[in-house]
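Handout, section B. The chain below has 302 residues.
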Amino acid sequence: MNITIKQVRAFLAIANNHSFAEACATMHLSQPALSIAIKNLEEEVGGKLFVRSTRTLALTPEGDTFLPVAQRLLNEWDSALQDLNNHFSLNRGRLAIAAMPSFANSLLPEFLKSFRDQHPKINITIHDVIAEDAVEMVRAGKVELALTFENEPSSDLTFTPLFTDHFIVALTPKHALASKQNITWQAIANEPFIALQPPSNIRKMIQQSIAEQQLDLNIEFESNHLATIGQMVASGIGISIVPAICRTLFQAQGVQCRRLIEPSLSRNIGIITRKRYPLSSAAQAFFTLLESNSYSQQTPKI
């Protein structure tokens, strides 16, 4: 069957008004147009829905049976359109985001607060996962965007840079190197080192850089989480190299942070989305909020 919502509206207008003339006024249609709509509807359903005479207009038994169904269809249609409009106008909706822990623990809460202030009716789910998993969640369509480090160019993903994050040395205030503002790779080569476990991209970057200096790291401890590394550094069992985005988290744990030099190490942080897949209105609004902020190196400004 090919029944249109216009035909359903016409049927209900006539049934509720008990008059073609009043139904025409309600729907802002001419009587011929309304008659054609009902004629086409009756042809589709296979029989008469109204009994007409010069003085009366009444529903047939079949029309009477169809009346509550038609009303329910119209209510559901109007509700669906309103719901769709609410999503487009950000009065309703859901947003799923993946964020690497260093971003989730530092910058993300402020962005979420700003977004919630503007769009309080959007439900937001945050997946706090390692950078590699954040990328895969976007690729699999589990989230619309991820906040993470830049990865190798991909045919199915787009990276939008937000800022450049420089790596820093994390150590205790009592450490011999804490008196220096800048620390070289040479200076840390023989120190007890706390590293992220493979296959962390941060671990790969650090190992590649140390190898280029023809040095070795004295890796004595490994962990999956930067927050855990912060606690381990604070305990005094070793030092680490971490993204500067973690500075606030580490300082809250009593850890000192110093600039890594000769050479410095940095990486772009930004938004990863799927190519050829448009963002929802909620995701696009959050994307715009992220992109509209300006950043400085090492310490992003919100």
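Note. The longest strand covers residues 157-171. Compare this with the example in section A.
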